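Input record (Table S2, row 196):
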Amino acid sequence: MRLILLGPPGAGKGTQAARLVEKHGIPQLSTGDMLRSAVANGTDIGRKAKSIMDSGGLVSDDVVNQIVSERIDEPDAAKGFILDGFPRTVAQAEALTAMLADKGISLDAVIELKVVEDELVKRIEKRAAETAAAGGKVRADDNADSFRTRLEEYRNKTAPLSAYYERQGELKTVDGMADMDVVTAEIEKILQGVRV
Ligand code: AMP
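Output record (adenosine monophosphate complex):
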């Protein structure tokens, strides 16, 4: 099963992806995680991406397209995967369509978590506070300024993807403001219809 989870930062994509990983045994391909690990490891990509990520901007399409393409080729993704945080621009979506066609595979569903934007800042603040309380490292971009930029980027560059996938007849939407377990159940309901 090959899925995309769409939705603004703080919509719950990461949480839902983690649950899907557990239930379906397919990996979560989070470009944010991949980039953060490149930053932590001080790779060339990481060095270039760090300041862009810290400010909440988007890393270049070429860079993320390449890391996703390579990641999809890894053996654990052969049975399927959940894309989280990619694609984020129409150019990335087009690149993904071409990339998958090239690899002879296709998507089974694109699921969008719809949320009320005003609530997102609160969620991000909560995530940062909980991570800090648990002794974890708070993300450099989980602060009010970067979050505003991330939301802007989402509105301008990522939100148009809903229309892109709607045109392709692949878009399904879920109320991301509902309780986490309800969101999980709704996603599972959608997957029943597309299970391969
Ligand atoms: P995320 O963990 O998905 O919130 O991503 C954190 C940051 O990584 C984003 O704010 C961007 O700077 C960068 N990033 C993650 N995915 C992408 C992508 N598909 N395209 C461009 N930048 C990305």
